[in-house]
Amino acid sequence: MTAYRLGIFLRNLLLYALLTFFAFVMLFPFLVMLFTSLKEAGDTYRFPPKLLPREAITINVEGFEEPLPVYYVDHNGSREEFVLIEKTVKVAEFASPDDLETTFLRELALVTPTGGESNPETVIYEGEEEILYDITVDGEIIPMIQVRKTALGRFANPNDLSQTVLQNVRQSEPVEKLTYHPENYQEVISLHGMDRALTNTALVTILVVLGQLATSILGGYAFARLKFPGRDGIFLVYLGTIMVPFVVVITPLYQLMIMIDWVDRLASLIIPWIFTAYGTFLMRQFFITIPKEIEEAAVLDGASRLQILWRIFIPASTPAIATLTTFTFLYAWNSFFWPLVVINTGNEANRVLTLAVSVLGGRAADAPNLVLAGAAIAILPPVIIYIFGQRFFVESTATSGLKG
Q1: Can you count the helices (H) and strands (E) in the chain?
Q2: DSSP per-residue letters across 67-94
Q3: What pLDDT does 267 receive?
């Protein structure tokens, strides 16, 4: 029995580990988006990349007007924190013509040619004339030739500037601290017109959601409970419109918008989309599951059709209504193709978020942190709505569509 329980425990542990892993894989792109939106522009191009936003530490050093960046350097065999006091120091590697494997790094400004600047001594090496330089090694001056030259940075101990180290700046690790820059969101909203687009998107989404809820609830109740000639045939035809691709109706719909002068207006994003065959079908299927005896008892008590719908059917259909609200909200909020067709991208007064993010991607192509801040503004509201409506969505999936 103990072995059986242990097997169940290990199986469940493995299952939860796999689910946790795949959940992290799914969430990782969103985490990258959120953390990158809080970074500085330069931090987004760092290599190797780091997930959390970081900022280089700078300190004030006596004798320098501006704060100096702090880096990790190797000094006397230990890893210490030094400040960068000079970015470009010209240095070279010198070696004896008889032993080119052993090189010595020296500053070019501190070495002099053997024989002086006016009459330097030279040596022929591999057919080339090379200048000899006086290089001091362990107190002894040895004539050497220049093997290669480069540029390094000069780092100094902030507590004792006489202690200096020459090191490659690009390969040096800066001393950093975790930070965040929420002002990226303020910049996107205020400078790139995202505030107007956010308001337009919220208005369009709310009106489309309310419109679809009203038409779907009334239509679903009519097809589920009212008896009239041709009801089932009309419902099948209406339901069949779901199979018509949007690309088929986009041209005549756009021509209709031109005829009624709704191009470049928010009405074109609202009115055509408050009618939905899917929503009507969803509400009809849920209303069918409500026992007729409840409705008949309400009729005997003198309730009208609207009272029955408002007091009985709607409260009992909360999961279906929440599901329809979630789907409609996600569609209206994320709609891109139709707004791209009917709203001019240069029309900032009536532009929605999807268009604004598209324009932002072009204008701020050199600032990924701003682009991802705009993307976060567009993505987070529907994610939050879905999280809150997920329970109702699961209930609706389990209980609707069971009766025809």
Answers
A1: 14, 12
A2: -EEEEEEEETTEEEEEEEEEEEEEEEEE
A3: 92
Record: fold of 185-399: MetI-like fold (1.10.3720)
Name the residue with tokens 């308001």: 199
Token reading at 137: 């090694």
Quickly count: other Cβ atoms within 10 Å of residue 84's Cβ: 19
For residue 55 the two structure tokens come to 């900022």
- CA-to-CA dists, residue 6 to 9, 20, 277, 284, angstroms: 5, 21, 52, 48
Sites in the chain below the pLDDT cut of 70: 1, 192, 389, 391-404
Q: Which helix (H) or strand (E) holds 146?
A: strand 140-157
Answer for the pair 292, 403: CB distance below 8 angstroms, yes or no.
no
Q: Are 292 and 298 in contact (CB under 8 A)?
A: no
* pLDDT for position 216: 94
Any idea what the Cα angle at residue 336 is, between residues 331 and 266, rounded to 5°?
Answer: 85
Q: Please report the pLDDT score of residue 393 as a whole number.
A: 61
Alpha carbons within 13 A on the beta-carbon side of 400: 26
Annotated domain spans of the chain: 2-54, 56-177, 185-399
- Would you say the C-alpha torsion 376, 388, 394, 21 has a positive or negative sign? positive
Q: Say if strands 173-174 and 160-167 run parallel, antiparallel, or are unpaired.
A: unpaired
Q: Is the peptide bond before 113 cis (omega within 30 degrees of 0)?
A: no
- What lies within 8 Å, CB to CB, of 344 at 6+ separation is 264
pTM, to two decimals: 0.70
Count of C-beta atoms within a 10 Å radius of residue 284: 25
What percentage of the chain's residues is helix, strand, coil (to nearest 5)?
Answer: 55, 20, 25
User: Residues, the chain, total?
Assistant: 404
With beta carbons less than 8 A apart as the criterion, state whether 63 and 55 touch.
no
The pLDDT of residue 222 = 92
Predicted confidence at residue 392, as pLDDT, reads 64
* Cα torsion through 352, 355, 357, 361, rounded to 10: -160
